[in-house]
Amino acid sequence: MTAPNAETLTRPEAIATDVPVPPVRTVTYLFLTGTWVAANVRSSSEKNIKIPYEVAFDGVIQDRAPDWPRRIIGGTAFTIRVPVGVEVSLFLNTDSLVGARMHPVYAVTPDENDVHVTIRETRGARLETLAEAVLARTAVDERSGRRIDYYDAPLHGNIWARISRVYTSEAAAETLPADADAAIRDAVVSIYRGLDRAQLEIQIGNPPVQTISATFVDSENPRVNISNYSFLRDGLPRVHPLGFFALLDAARVAGATVVNLTSCWRPSLGSIAHRAGIGLDVNIIADDAGSVRINRSELIGGMPTPWVSDAEPHLHRRRGEDRGAWTAEVERNKPPLFQAFRSALEASQHVRQIFDPWYLDANSRDEVPATYNEQNNANAMLHNNHLHITLNIPELL
Ligand SMILES: [Zn+2]
Question: Per residue in 309-323, pLDDT tens?
Fold first, then answer.
């Protein structure tokens, strides 16, 4: 027996009440990220972190509704409309990319009521809790008068690790450009096979014309925020292969013999770049002429380096009156190896941002030149003692 058709059984003016329309609920997600940042800090890359995401209904990725944000933003609620009884879940960070999407998180299935999920990010505590929404209470929203089921959920280092893609050596080999230098390619791919020590000796050319000793330096943040963390097994393979490629290839082009990579992937610190494995830092490069510590913090009272002359701090303070005198002094003492390394990064189509003690460039792919690092704001001061690159991966940045 076929079901009666509402349209044939009702008068036109009554159709609206008789046609069966699946009821729709709203599901709101609020990410309270960087909860360790002081309350009086209005904007921060942690509190207002931008997280790449996809939404799934019953496990199926949904097309973007026009009112959905480009990124989930920490501290800003985000609402999805969903038919009753359909499970909503999120794919976050690098787990949102095509080819990843392994670990849906914060699933909820609205029934009688609308749903509001609050995700609180913490550091170093209760790392065993899962990326699951737990019903905390049901209450009537005073503004809308609607009943809402309020859920709570955690976000911490182990969950960041879960939503951060681990690249295999096969994926790395596929990702690297076809015309990559053979030795650099082999070195990068070997990182994803699993290194037995945090160092690579890369022989360029056959017979070798250049040897690059690359050292990878572990950091505190993943160690205290991830259970049973191993730098070589869990940290390095979460870095996008093009990150290691861009830095090691720039070292090759610059003729460097040593490069120190100090911060690779990490879960619970800074902007999305390092958490998505597309931000990397370098603090030392060297060639046969000597070692360059990438540091100009002396300008504002930090460690002395040869790249800040005795005259420069005074010229820096007077740069409002005579900018040319200051920038000429900056250029006069700049190590050629650093300039060669930075120029190679600037020329790389895989790199989008370069922040270092000499220059700041929020978009190295556009025509706007880098500006001098005046060490006069948070981003400028943060980068007065290392070089940072962010990869050019539009799906993530
Ligand atoms: Zn960085």
Answer: 999 999 999 999 999
